[in-house]
Every structure is written in C-alpha cells, then in structure tokens.
C-alpha cells in the first residue's frame, strides 16, 4: 500500500483546514452520497461517505488519494472510483474502526487490487 493513497493529491485542490462535511460525493459514474467526516492526517487522510438510501445508509471510508477534485463553490467532491467499487468496499463502522490500522490495511488492499 502506498502512502500516496492516503494523501490528497495536489490536483484535488484540497487545502488543509478545509471543512468538507456535507459536501456531495460524485463517483466516476454518478452521485453516491455526502461527506460524513474526513481527516487530513499525514499519510492517513480519508473521507467517510454516507451513501444514504443508495445502499441503505452504509458508510464507507475512501482514501484521500481517490479524491480527484474538490469544488468549493459547488460543495462537491469527485472521486476516481465507480459506484460499484464504493458499494463493494468494506463497510465502515466509526465506533469500531476509527483509527484501526488493520481496517485501514484491509481497505488499502481492496483499493490497491486494481481499484486505484
């Protein structure tokens, strides 16, 4: 797993300190939900997406390296994943998995298997 997967790319236009909660999240093939939480930890940044009714309220943790663009004016984040890739990703339970290195490794393996 590369550290770059867990860092916002310069092309994403992410500025440290930016609050992304509530922003709409767009997969490469359509809308998937909104940002429920996010971090900007060095080499450990991610976005948690609340998929709402789309996949029955599932929360998914997406590595910051998948964010390709942040539109501050539209309050929208574009990621380089499909809706299917996000739907099939391991579910995130913030009470159990926040800060869990093993869960993060599992996610890294999922996204490294050709998903990034």
Give the arrangement of secondary structure elements:
Layout: E1 24-27, E2 30-38, E3 46-50, E4 59-63, E5 67-71, E6 76-79, H1 83-87, H2 94-97, H3 101-112
Parallel strand pairs: 1-6
Antiparallel strand pairs: 1-2, 2-3, 3-4, 5-6
Q: If you had to describe this structure to a student in words, what would you say it looks like?
A:
The chain has 116 residues and is of the alpha+beta class. 18% of the residues lie in helices and 28% in strands. The mean pLDDT is 88.
Q: How helix-rich are the residues, as a percent range?
A: 10-25%
Q: How many DSSP E strands?
A: 6
Report the sheet-strand fraction. 25-35%
Oligomerization state: single chain
Largest sheet: 6 strands, mixed
Keywords:
alpha+beta, 28% strand, 3 helices, 6-stranded mixed β-sheet
Give a quick rundown of the structure:
Helix content is 18%, strand content 28%.
